[in-house]
Amino acid sequence: MPSPTARLRDILQLRFSPLFAGLPARTLEGISPRSVWKRLAKVAGYAALRLVGNVFRPIRNAEDLHGKVWLYVVSQNNYEALHFLSEALPGAVLVAGQSKQIGRYNQQVNRLSLRRKLLYYGQFPGVLLDLWKMEGQLAWRFFDLIFNAIGYYEVYCRALRHYQPRAVVFANDHNDDARALLLACRAEGVPTAYVQHASVSTSFPPLGFDLSLLEGQDALDKYRQCGPVQGQVALVGMPKADAFLSQKNENLQVQCVGVATNLLDETPAIMEAVDYLLREFPTLTFTFRPHPGDPRDFALLRQQHPTLRFSDARQESVFEFLRQQDALVAADTSTHLEATLLNVASIYYRFGTHTGTDDYYGYVAHGLVPRAHTLAALGTLLRNYQQHKPLHLYQQAAYYNATLGTAEEGHSQQRAVRLLREWLGETF
Question: What is the arithmetic mean of pLDDT over 173-185?
Answer without folding.
Answer: 95
